Amino acid sequence: MLPPPREPGRYRISLVCLGNICRSPMAHVVLERRLAEAGLTDRVEVSSSGTGDWHVGKPMDERAAATLAGAGYDGSAHRASSWDPGRPADLVLAMDAANLRDVGGRDERTWLFGDLDPVEPGAEVPDPYYGGPSGFEEVLRMVERTSASLVSVLEQELAAT
Questions:
Q1: Which among 17, 33, 90, 117 is annotated as catalytic?
Q2: Active site (annotated) includes residue 23
Q3: Per the residue annotation, which of 61, 90, 117, 127 is the catalytic one?
Q4: 42 lies in which domain range?
Q5: Is the entire prediction scored with pTM above 0.90?
Q6: Is the dihedral of CA 4, 80, 143, 42 positive or negative?
Q7: What domain count does the chain have?
Q8: Where are the extended beta strands (E) located within the chain?
């Protein structure tokens, strides 16, 4: 069960990683596609950010963008932003335990993205930045299956509101 929306009829999800150029923007692009396919874009808003600010304003890592493009997604509009604890969110999903600590730790509205992973519940999404293409492909597989799971839960819970 997801935390309740702060505003009736609207659900806000914030995805957070370290620099907002690999994991959280990949998840953002995939989740928005899944939401569109489910007809939920008018009810669910997705944002992504990084706990570090050194990439603010920059596009997604070219390897992340290429991995997305190879799977039929378009990440070209992404520009990195920095985590803002004042931005309202119904659910904050951190990519790993360090990101979770950086946003204030686990609570009712702050979880690991992997908590919704149907294959590896509670798994951290590994940072592919210092690795090769296979790391980005692994991240894509994780965010695709977890986004599908999240959208399924949202469909059920938003139908009840």
A1: 17
A2: yes
A3: 127
A4: 11-156
A5: yes
A6: positive
A7: 1
A8: 11-17, 44-50, 91-94, 110-112
